[in-house]
Amino acid sequence: MYDVSTRMRVLSLVAQGRSLNSVSKQTGISRAAIRSWQNRLEPLPRMAPRAPGPPSDDRAYAYLLGLYLGDGCISAHPRSGYYLRIACADAWPGLMRLCREAIMRVSPGVSVYAVRKQGCAMVTSYSPHWPHLFPQHAPGRKHERRIVLEPWQQGIVDAHPWEFVRGLIHSDGCRITNWTTRLVGGERKRYEYPRYFFTNVSADIRRLYTDTLDKLGVEWAHCARDGDAYNISVARRASVALMDAHVGPKY
């Protein structure tokens, strides 16, 4: 016997277009068992709230919303319900933990598991209500359609702006150390200084980020590459100090 979480994880792999043979080899579960789960008439028990309702934890939701807008997606289950998936690079195990915790706080009772990919893991959760909690879900890529927050979402972001910024940085941002050289007393010396970058192809998502920075008093600038202003830079010392106090580097 396999628990519900295991069955849903295996069926999610099949739903991605994987063959039964490859899924069986990866999970160690026989093809016959997987096929029986696909063909069973009764639906799998749902590990989710019975009614949509608001997020259970607004602070966690603001962070998870940032992660979703950066590296998240929602896809339909073959029978019913939806999967929320957040891509987390293997280089940041702390991010995976924070992502799992945020999902469980936003919607207590849902199952959360990781689907391994090359160089990353898809932190995944099944619920029939994810589109209600993330109404930005729609066909097509995010940067090819309008991304606007609902009033209730904006209210949560206004109440927890740093958590929202933190989620965006943890998904599509980074903290790096730049360096330059200066002549001091005839001697060239090297100086290092930290800065934050946020990169997203969607102009709407970049605007949500910069509008929130404006409200927080963080100075920012566009940093174009190849003529595309996809990068937002925070480099002034006072603003970097604010980001360090509330966001910090990924880990």
Descriptors:
single chain, 251 residues, alpha+beta, Endonuclease I-creI, four-stranded antiparallel sheet, 10 helices, 42% helix, 25% strand
What does this structure look like?
This protein has helices spanning 4-15, 20-27, 31-39, 58-71, 93-106, 130-133, 151-159, 161-172, 203-216, 237-246; strands spanning 72-76, 82-89, 112-117, 120-127, 173-184, 187-199, 221-225, 228-234. Among the domains are: 1-45; 170-246, Homing endonucleases (Endonuclease I-creI), CATH 3.10.28.10. Residues 41-51 have low confidence and may be disordered. Strand 7 (221-225) and strand 8 (228-234) form a beta hairpin. The chain has a four-stranded antiparallel sheet with strand order 1-2-4-3, sandwiched between helices. The protein has a four-stranded antiparallel sheet with strand order 5-6-8-7. The chain has 251 residues and is an alpha+beta fold. The two termini are 37 Å apart. Helix 4 crosses helix 5 and helix 4 crosses helix 7 (151-159). The protein is globular.
Largest sheet: 4 strands, antiparallel
Q: From the 3D coordinates, which CATH architecture of the domain at 170-246 would you assign?
A: Roll
Instruction: Show unreliable segments.
Output: 41-51
Oligomerization state of this entry?
A: single chain
The CATH class of the domain at 170-246 turns out to be Alpha Beta
Rg over CA atoms: 21 Å
Name the helicity range. Answer: 40-55%
Alpha-carbon distance between the termini? Answer: 37 Å
Kindly report the CATH topology of the domain at 170-246. Endonuclease I-creI
What is the tally of beta strands?
8
What spatial order of strands do you see in the largest sheet?
A: 1-2-4-3
Number of helices: 10
